[in-house]
Amino acid sequence: MNRLLGLLLLVGSLSLGSHAQNDSGPKPPVSDKTAAAAADRRAAEIAKATLAAHGGEKLTHMKSLLVRGTVDVTSSTFNQPIPATFVIVTAGDRYRFELNNPIQPLKQVFDGRQTYTTAQGLALPPMTSLGFPLLSRIGESGYVIAALPDAKKKRAGFRITAPGGYYTDFFVDEKTNQIKGYESSYDIDGRLITTSVEVDKFQTVDGLLVPDKYSQRFDLGTMTAYASFKAKQILVNSVITDDVFAIPN
Q: Are strands 82-91 and 157-161 parallel, antiparallel or unpaired?
């Protein structure tokens, strides 16, 4: 049970992941390289349209985001929902995530220099390097946009790889340019974890289109965990004091 709840700290505005898988293999022929370059250019166009659909410059210049809500957790080995509440606060690279439940409250904080977590023994990735927060980095140096891997190219979308190798594959509604979902793969202590998010509903807040109802699946190999999130409050560019990101002594 504690392991399942601990893995929820991988979720951030989803969401999330650790070191991405490294796609390697023989170098493609020149014609394949040309096709790949064209696919990457198309992915960059989709990414720009997606950024515009979710707020454009308002999103890239967002100073802070605070989301509070409820979440129900289940798994393939424990199908009774575990009710909980969550709080996600981001400001630049800093973030705070809390999952409050009657079994084991969890917290993760990054103050811009170091990370604190109550989930001992888990090497957790930066929550601002994956999932929805990456959309605000489109066009920023160091954040590479590329076409989806071959197995996913039947769906409209793009991949963003952040500094350090963290990546998220975004899937986009071709009519609205809004994200329908996203996924990543993570390596935690030698175990490959794949997580995927499906967005059910958005909320417009101060010109930004933010997911406020979504479900997330964690494939852990030996177990699959599910989390259904529902935002109750979303605040954009509210004043966030430094003590929110303070590391406990």
A: unpaired
